[in-house]
DNA sequence: TATGAATGAGTGTTCATTCAT
DNA sequence: AATGAATGAACACTCATTCAT
């Protein structure tokens, strides 16, 4: 991809790296790949970044911000709609986010240099911790409105929501056959229901 | 480690690779590392495996089986103990399993050759799908005993259980600071409670 | 270091390069280092010099002239003081000169391009050949005054003087431990004595 | 040059590197150059040496030993022949040694890693310090025989002898025109004479 | 069958030099 | 003239894989 003149080469490199991160993840990504994707010379990145990891950290950052920006506005408001419907929206939103982010993130677990560089960057406004916190905040608001049990633990519920996304996305990543891009809608509905009512039989609880 | 004569060199190589997989994960693992760990010559693996990936796929397989074997017997029996206590045991068990397996698995998402080799192997008796299925079976048994709501979806509950483990383990892997090896016990209790009762307010069910 | 307007950029670059040559020698010196030291843009040197080597040749030239200028006035006058004392002064002077010049020069033996550029420059008024010639001239003057044997060969004596400096400075450069900056004073005294009287036993001459 | 089967590849690599060291010095010598000279693959040296510097240190060691071996037997015996003749032989010998060694050594002054590796190797039986020590020993023996003044300082005389070699060889190295391979015989004779008698006028000693 | 030396393409990185502005 | 971003060949070094023994 050739560069359009409207952005600095630094941003152009970050964008090219972010594209590759999205497509192929962080593992096995070479600086030559990035240079080719950006349509520039091999060594050019060292005029703008200390090393490969600094570029990739910025690219990952940008990728996550881009994914979040694309999902903006989809957040249900407390008190509006049904609780089940809202949970479903949160789950869909979190799934979309993780489907776009986890492939790049999974290959990072074994790249300490990259993780360290990432930690140097300003905290992501959202990202993985972002959905978790936003969803917990939403639940607390619903709690105040009486639509969520006062004994419920928003942090635990948020962990279940995010965890399910990790699971569904990772399973697909590890499946060489690929699998369907969208999870089974029936499973999603059952997940929402389980989050809502739990598995215990109805009782004086 | 020297080879004891009781096993084939093939098995010996798989065991050595599995040890390294457990210690350091799949990324950055060289065939020289494996050969040194096994105490054999560099090129010997090509007499027993088509390539590095085939060996690692077998090693991963063996590693997962070993972790499962170490956890055998910890499975709560339906109808015995409290449901909450049993869920807690299942969660601990699943966490231990994923803590031992995910580090090796996470680095795999970007190694298609390895994933393909893994798919050629006989399906894992347990592994990630294993816990999921076993826990779902357990819930169905409890359902038959009336200790779990007949409307509960065992598959969804199992996905939540496994997902939470992915989340907790991955978060630690991605945290450059490391973080505590054990998750917060309060969070674990709240997770079990949420799985049991959900977040919806108590109502006519 | 910012440029003062009083000198051409060309001279400014030469001065900056000469400073680095003095500090770090010719090896491992990049054009970026020079540009940064001069406080100018990377490519500016190519407006004033054909290539890196031409700049460095000029810088070396300037460095040597600067070292010589700093030593000016220390030259013993023929007929004044003792011959031994004067030889000692010459040796000290030559040592100081070589200590300042050889580190930059030693790395040059393997840079043919730089040597060729250096040869294009006007012969150094002093430099290494400078001390040699000046000392030989001094000896010839002392010879005319009868304080040096008429059979002595000033050129040979000058070569011994300069050679000893090469040896002492090079040995220190090649010693990874570093070694003392000043040579052993007893050795220096013995060197002067040997230059004066030789090793042959006193005899009928 | 292809390898003859009679030596290990390790020795073959050392020999190839020593040839290049002799021809072109240590500066600007790449691992590819060595591999090409040895007629082997690029990366092969890392099967035998920790890094480039370890190989070059061994090569330099071998080169110096080879030069010394070629000069063995040329050492004058104390008490035999004339002192002047013997000094001349020592000077020739030292010159030959330095002419063969200094080109490789001069480029080393700026390679700290290589110098450190060299320091790890067993001390050279001879080498530069070798001639110096041997010549000083020779002078002491002549002193005991009364053919050298009891007041002479063998260490200083040896430093002058070695220093002159450094000077003559370095001057040629730094002369891009090359210059004659052999120094002016008249100068050599005058050097010997100066070492013998000094520059002071004949007197009561 | 086991060895381990040899291979060579590929890695991240540097840096003298160019050239549009 | 001066800039400094871009270039791309070169560097030291790694490692999966091969093959003569």
TrEMBL record, chains A, B, C, D:
Q: Which domain of life is it from?
A: Bacteria
Q: Which residues bind DNA?
A: 30-49
Single Gene Ontology MF annotation: DNA-binding transcription factor activity
Which Pfam families does the entry mention?
TetR_N
Keyword field: DNA-binding, Transcription, Transcription regulation
Gene3D superfamilies, sorted: Homeodomain-like, Tetracycline Repressor, domain 2
Does Protein biosynthesis appear among the keywords?
A: no
Segments forming domain HTH tetR-type: 7-67
Q: Which InterPro entries match?
A: Homeodomain-like_sf, HTH-type_TetR-like_transc_reg, HTH_TetR, Tet_transcr_reg_TetR-rel_C_sf
Identification of the protein by name: Transcriptional regulator, TetR family
Native species of this protein? Answer: Micromonospora humi
